[in-house]
Design brief:
single chain; little secondary structure; 1 helix
């Protein structure tokens, strides 16, 4: 996915009006949608799950490195590890999930990688 969602996290801020600027871009892009949310998100989550990859065979050594994102000021927004339910064993080889869902609101997050048989030099 070359053109996908971009998730940028800002420190908690309040305001009535917002002005969005993209300095240094020379206006060489198209913006399809801007979605501001007051929820916790993982910054650059698409890239971190390899949803957008470098377009040449060997990326620069720092291509998959990201700066630290701002921390949460409201810990209640964080996922509590003791509330995470691992349902991996309930998925069949063909990807079918059979699970007696518990009451509540759930988000199912599935990630996987497939080897490409390509090797690249280690960064160092």
């Amino acid at each position: 996915m070359l053109f996908g969602a971009v998730c940028v996290v800002f420190p908690e801020t309040s305001g009535r009006y917002w002005r969005v600027m993209f300095p240094g871009t020379l206006n060489v892009f198209e913006l399809a949608e801007l979605d501001l949310r007051a929820v916790a998100r993982t910054e650059f989550f698409v890239e971190k799950q390899l949803g957008k990859t470098f377009q040449d065979p060997i990326p620069p050594c720092n291509y998959y490195s990201w700066p630290d994102q701002p921390g949460l000021t409201r810990p209640a927004l964080a996922i509590q590890p003791e509330q995470v339910v691992d349902i991996s064993s309930m998925m069949t080889v063909d990807g079918t999930l059979t699970w007696d869902v518990l009451d509540g609101e759930w988000i199912i997050h599935r990630m996987g990688l497939t080897p490409t048989s390509e090797s690249a030099p280690a960064c160092g």
